[in-house]
Each structure stands twice: as structure tokens, then as C-alpha cells.
């Protein structure tokens, strides 16, 4: 493996490899195309036609390609060296890079981290690192970016360093960790937020998922890095046992480095009273959601581990990601309409518990998007959660016009016998708005998402705005 790595690095040094990618559509002249699986194998010929002169893969190659002057670098586990090659091609990165992983909340933690650093007078961004392909690399709200390839990530880190951006948080999925996408990033700190069993397909998946995500702290985080961990989590003890010599910054209700003394809701946000490294700090925010308060505390832990003093910033200026417990501003004083991008049972439960926390005297109507595809695998579980927590449920389909099977309809109505089914999404929104009481809050799930650029989401967002403005 070492010899193969050195050979490819030599090709880069001599200028014979000018760029690297695993996306066949982005291949250009003198590129190295990374093809670690059958999915990419099918595109090797196209990559060569586009100008690739080097292929890193785990399969045998055809002799005709060699006649075209194409170099094949073959290894049974190419992912073991791909991240190192990308790091060699793009050597620079911001001074302070940290990472966060967990079942949920990672993107919010990263988003809050970049804002805490910015309010402290530093230049900061967040990169979401996932092994899933994405359609766009546009910045979210000017600060956050989605990454699905190690080459793309290292090139962006290199560019950030050139732009004198000092702080960067990577919100990393378990799949990205498993595929070693960030193994060559020099981290200052890493956080493990949570592992929610309810969202797993099989209970036994919990241990596998934990081991996958724990690699971030046990193997990827350097020995001089800081682990940011929830004090009361069952997994914190296990992680600390695996990494006895690494520094730890704990947070939670109990006595810890960041102790959350109290968390009080308001109708526009929350007030957190914390003891940060022995100093009491009152944080007033415009962030809705009890779970988001926990995400903010995690972000503060990462910021402290990167040398930021969070006690001196204006916390009121911190805002959540678009699509999370977001009230529409165009509804007037008489109506409260909230959108949220909850996609799993635990996320929906966190949302509804937070609604009761912020608005204990308001009735709630939930417009729940139901689907038969892979995104809708949790529909029935989410309906069961909603049945226990809201006053009225309206089931509706996707904005792309897909319909539910008769079996799914029966299952949904069985667990929620008082629910209303309105298949047309626009009509469901209109019904909810036209039949709401003055004190009622309408929650429309699955409308906006900071990472989902699909037609379903975009259509629903535009549809909702059209419904509201027509009232």
C-alpha cells in the first residue's frame, strides 16, 4: 500500500495528475478518477473519455485502456489511501478544524459553532461531510456547505486556508467515517452528540452504529485533540475507556466542564444558564427547541476546545438552520404556522415536545407528509408519535403527486383513527389554515430542509407560501 501511495504522489508531484474526483461527471483532462465500487466501475470508460489519465480502483482493468496511456492503480481497499492522496494534493487546512457526529443534531451543532466563532470575531464555516451524493455545493446561509467526496473536502479546506478562514466544523455522517473521508484531516476537537436507537431499522444496529461513529474520537482525532462528550451519556464512559489519554470536555446537567444549570423557554427562544469552566454565563437566544439548546451547548464545547471564549459574544444573534421550527413571517398576528424538516420519529418527538415546552397552552395541528419511498419508511412510526402528542393530524402525500397504497392508509388510520386524510398537499395546507382556531399552531412537517434540494421539498415550500398569501 505504501508503494502505491508513493507512486501516485510522485505522479501528482510531476504534474501528471492535475486533479482528483470520484464523480465521473466532473472528470477533466489529466484527472485521477476514484472508482472504489461497482457504482463507479460502470463509469470508468466515460471518465477516460472525459480525460482521466489515472484510475484508482479495486478491480481488474481492460488492456485497451493501457493503450490509451491510462495508468491503473489497483488495490483491494483503495479507500485506505484515497484520503491520503487527497490530503497530499491539497495540503492546507484552517488552523482549527473540529468535527461532530451523532444520530441527529450534527448539522445544527456545526451551524452554531460557526456562528459562535464568527461572533467572537473569527472567520468560520461549517462543512457537512456525508457519503451521500448531493446536487449542489452552494453555501447554506453563506456559512455551511455540503460535501460528499474526500477530494472535494480537502480542496475546500485548502481554499479556506488560502482565504484566511481559521475555524471550520465538520458535521460528519457515520457512512463518511466508515469510508475514511476525514481520516487525513488534522482535528483539534471532536464531539459525539447522541445515538438514538428508535430511528434504527434493527436494535442490533445500535452497537454497529456506535462503533462506526466512535472511530471519529478513538482513531481519527489525534492524541492531543479534545473530545467533547455529554456527561450523562452511556456511551461517554465507553469512549473515555477507549481513549484514556485524550483530553475531555464534558457538558450536561450534572457537574461538568459546561454545566447546564437551567433551560427556560420563551415564545421566541430560550434562556440558558450555564457554568462554563467554573464561570456562570446566562445565554439568551432566539432559538426554538429544547433539543436545539443542547446542540448549542455542544457547539460551545467545541468552540472552547478550539480556544474561543463564548462568554463574550452576543448570543441573541445566533440563529438556527432554516427549516427547523421556523415560523412563517407572512401569516400575520392571528395565525401561527410553523414548518419543520423532521424526518424520523425521534426528530418529530423532539419537535412536538419542544412545542409543548414553548407553547403549553396552544393546541397543535400537524400536517404530516406521508410517503411510500425510502424517505417515508418512518411514516407509520411518526404517526404513532404524533397521535399521542397533538390535537389534530392531517395526513397528506408528497408534493410530487405520489399516492399511498391502501395498506398504508389502513395502517395510518388504525393508529390515528381521528386523523384526517387529504391526499392533495396544497388542499391539506388550505384545510389546516382555514379551520384553525385563534390559539392554534399549525405545524407543517417536511416542507423545508437545509440539505434536501429535491423537487418535493422545493414544491412544498412554494406551495405553502402560495396558500398563505392567498388567504
TrEMBL record:
One of its GO terms (molecular function) is acid-amino acid ligase activity. Residues 329-446 form the Mur ligase C-terminal domain. Keywords: Ligase. Residues 100-303 form the Mur ligase central domain. InterPro entries: Mur-like_cat_sf, Mur_ligase_C, Mur_ligase_C_dom_sf, Mur_ligase_cen, MurE/MurF_N. It comes from the Bacteria. The keyword Ligase applies. The keyword Transmembrane helix does not apply. This is Glutamate ligase. It comes from Neorickettsia findlayensis.
Amino acid at each position: 500500500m505504501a508503494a502505491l501511495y508513493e507512486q501516485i504522489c510522485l505522479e501528482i508531484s510531476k504534474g501528471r495528475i492535475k486533479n482528483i474526483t470520484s464523480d465521473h461527471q466532473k472528470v477533466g483532462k489529466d484527472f485521477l478518477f476514484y472508482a472504489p465500487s461497482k457504482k463507479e466501475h460502470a463509469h470508468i470508460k466515460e471518465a477516460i473519455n472525459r480525460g482521466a489519465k489515472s484510475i484508482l480502483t479495486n478491480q481488474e482493468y481492460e488492456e485497451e485502456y493501457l493503450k490509451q496511456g491510462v495508468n491503473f492503480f489497483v488495490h483491494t481497499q483503495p479507500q485506505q489511501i484515497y484520503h491520503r492522496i487527497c490530503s497530499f494534493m491539497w495540503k492546507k487546512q484552517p488552523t482549527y478544524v473540529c468535527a461532530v457526529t451523532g444520530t441527529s443534531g450534527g448539522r445544527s451543532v456545526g451551524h452554531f459553532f460557526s456562528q459562535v466563532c464568527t461572533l467572537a470575531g473569527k472567520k468560520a464555516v461549517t462543512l457537512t461531510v456525508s457519503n451521500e451524493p448531493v446536487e449542489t455545493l452552494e453555501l447554506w446561509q453563506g456559512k455551511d456547505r455540503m460535501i460528499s467526496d474526500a477530494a472535494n473536502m480537502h480542496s475546500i479546506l485548502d481554499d479556506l486556508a488560502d482565504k484566511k478562514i481559521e475555524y471550520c466544523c465538520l458535521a460528519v455522517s457515520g457512512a463518511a467515517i466508515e469510508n475514511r473521508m476525514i481520516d487525513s484531516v488534522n482535528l483539534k476537537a471532536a464531539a459525539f452528540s447522541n445515538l438514538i436507537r428508535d430511528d434504527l431499522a434493527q436494535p442490533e444496529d445500535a452497537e454497529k452504529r456506535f462503533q462506526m461513529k466512535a472511530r471519529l474520537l478513538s482513531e481519527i482525532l489525534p492524541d492531543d485533540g479534545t473530545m467533547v462528550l455529554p456527561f450523562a451519556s452511556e456511551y461517554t464512559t465507553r469512549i473515555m475507556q477507549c481513549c484514556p489519554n485524550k483530553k475531555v470536555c464534558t457538558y450536561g446537567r450534572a457537574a461538568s466542564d459546561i454545566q447546564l444549570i437551567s433551560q427556560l423557554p420563551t415564545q421566541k427562544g430560550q434562556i440558558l444558564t450555564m457554568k462554563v469552566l467554573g464561570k456562570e454565563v446566562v445565554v439568551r437566544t432566539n432559538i426554538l427547541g429544547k433539543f436545539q439548546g443542547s446542540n448549542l451547548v455542544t457547539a460551545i464545547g467545541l468552540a472552547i476546545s478550539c480556544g474561543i471564549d463564548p462568554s463574550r459574544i452576543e448570543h441573541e444573534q445566533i440563529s438556527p438552520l432554516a427549516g427547523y421550527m421556523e415560523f412563517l413571517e407572512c401569516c400575520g398576528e392571528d395565525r401561527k404556522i410553523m414548518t419543520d424538516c423532521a424526518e424520523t420519529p425521534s426528530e418529530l418527538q423532539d419537535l412536538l415536545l419542544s412545542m409543548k415546552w414553548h407553547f403549553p397552552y396552544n393546541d397543535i395541528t400537524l400536517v404530516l407528509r406521508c410517503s411510500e419511498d425510502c424517505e417515508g419508511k418512518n411514516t407509520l412510526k411518526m404517526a404513532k408519535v404524533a397521535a399521542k402528542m397533538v390535537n389534530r393530524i392531517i395526513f397528506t402525500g408528497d408534493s410530487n403527486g405520489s399516492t399511498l397504497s391502501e395498506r398504508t392508509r389502513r395502517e395510518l388510520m388504525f393508529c390515528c383513527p381521528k386523523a384526517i386524510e387529504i391526499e392533495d398537499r396544497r388542499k391539506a395546507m388550505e384545510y389546516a389554515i382555514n379551520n384553525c382556531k385563534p390559539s392554534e399552531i399549525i405545524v407543517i412537517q417536511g416542507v423545508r430542509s437545509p440539505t434536501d434540494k429535491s423537487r418535493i421539498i422545493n414544491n412544498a415550500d412554494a406551495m405553502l407560501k402560495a396558500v398563505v398569501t392567498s388567504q
